[in-house]
UniProtKB/TrEMBL annotation:
It comes from Streptomyces ehimensis. Residues 1-57 form the Lsr2 dimerization domain. This is Histone-like nucleoid-structuring protein Lsr2. Residues 82-113 form the Lsr2 DNA-binding domain. Keywords: DNA-binding. Pfam families: Lsr2, Lsr2_DNA-bd. The keyword ATP-binding does not apply.
Amino acid sequence: MAKRIDTYFVDDLTDERDESVKERVISLDSRRVVIDLGDDSYAELEEKLAPYFAAGRSGRAAAAATPRQATRATPGVKTVEPTTSEVRAWAKRRRIKVAARGRVPAALREQYIADHMNAA
């Protein structure tokens, strides 16, 4: 007997299978969500947000508005990432071992983000 497990990607909005589906992070104020979107749904989102991006500030003005948070460039999506010190403090409060210096492991950063997404 053979067992076959298929993994496929589904667009969260259309509920359709699509090979172009990717995980997208959307952040507004203190609310942050992760959504799986195909190219068509993502293009629709970009089209709807275009006037807001056109009217908004970018670069130094946007960075000055959020001094405690760093941004990571993602094509078409602006995400806000927690600082290393925020992740370390969070881990310390939860008694999770983390080095005092150096790079914070990606898995720990993801735990921090997931914890804060659930709180929002």
